[in-house]
Design goal:
Order of helices and strands: HEEHEHHHHEHHHHHEHE
Radius of gyration: 19 Å
Oligomer: single chain
Strand order of the largest sheet: 4-3-5-2-1-6
Number of strands: 6
Mean pLDDT: 85
Shape: globular
Structural class: alpha/beta
Largest sheet: 6 strands, mixed
Low-confidence stretches: 1-8, 19-29
Distance between the termini: 31 Å
Number of domains: 1
Strand content: 5-15%
């Protein structure tokens, strides 16, 4: 399965897990960033009969000192009246930890090795050891939560820092200007999308994380580079490969959420708001993108950057 796509799917949750006190192995990135230092990620303008909005595809954790806020973005932020993010509340680690523990644990889970093909078991054990979580911890971790924990270990020393992520940077700017910052989802809802997957799909996610663990540095570099270059074709290609070829996962993790977000954005514009909306870049790529769903509702969506 495509390594880059796995990172796109799990990165929002990895950022949530970074806020959990129960996962000390997820620390700010240690590796030096050798990719582009600046860029102009894609930005869209949404126009409707009752108002307008802006759509920005972001990365939830970035290398420090990357320059990505352009003059066009600044104008859009000035013209907007609020910031809308995927999720807010990352500054409440105790609450996020509690939510993860409630949703991610169930007694009597099979051993981690039994949830994987034989050829993946040794690599999974290496990731487990790197996570500093005892083997007994996986006896209660549901498969999606185990996958997330191992993904955290695989990405622990990458050059990504949550404080440099799009959400943190934008939220700081909007709050400084006394503009509200709201979320499309709660942390609990983000976790629940994975928790609600059938066990077969959770195991597919776990297998993909383990199989692609060694590709994490290059996958992350490719992901950030494509984002900085505003390369919609590469993002759309990623949105149609790997795990998202599995219909239940695609519907649950991508299509369902995009549809819900398009409904919320429609309601906000209908109420007279002028939101600047920043969500994961993978949600703004491909035929099931948020833009496509807004266009189907009668909005005119124009890429301005």
């Amino acid at each position: 399965m495509n390594a880059s796509l796995v990172r796109w799917l799990l990165l929002p949750l990895l950022v949530l897990i970074q806020a959990c006190s129960g996962f000390p192995f997820l620390e700010p990135g240690l590796a030096a960033w050798d990719g582009p230092k600046k860029g102009t990620p894609a930005l869209w303008h949404v126009q409707g009969r009752q108002g307008e909005a802006w759509l920005f595809g972001g990365i939830h954790a970035l290398p420090p000192n990357i320059k990505w806020i352009s003059p066009k973005m600044k104008r859009a932020m000035d013209d907007s009246d609020r910031l809308v993010l995927e999720v807010v509340g990352l500054e409440q680690p105790a609450e996020i930890t509690k939510t993860f523990q409630q949703l991610g644990n169930s007694p009597g889970q099979p051993p981690l090795a039994d949830r994987l093909a034989p050829e993946l078991r040794d690599r999974a054990e290496q990731l487990r050891a790197a996570s500093r979580l005892a083997p007994a911890r996986f006896e209660t971790l549901e498969t999606w939560a185990a996958a997330l924990s191992l993904a955290g270990a695989a990405t622990a020393n990458l050059a990504m820092v949550r404080e440099a992520g799009v959400e943190r940077v934008l939220a700081k700017r909007y709050r400084k200007r006394d503009k509200p910052v709201i979320g499309l989802e709660t942390a609990a809802r983000q976790f629940s999308y994975f928790d609600e997957l059938a066990e077969e799909e959770q195991r597919a996610m776990l297998s993909s994380v383990v199989a692609d663990a060694d590709n994490a540095p290059q996958a992350y570099r490719d992901m950030v580079t494509a984002w900085l270059e505003g390369d919609g074709e590469r993002l759309a290609e990623a949105a149609n490969r790997g795990l998202l070829q599995r219909k239940p996962i695609r519907e649950q993790i991508l299509v369902r959420r995009n549809r819900d977000w398009a409904n919320q954005i429609t309601d906000l514009i209908g109420l007279g708001a002028r939101p600047f909306i920043a969500v994961g870049a993978a949600h703004l790529a491909g035929e099931d993108s948020v833009q496509a769903m807004l266009e189907a509702r009668g909005f005119t969506v124009t890429r301005v950057q």
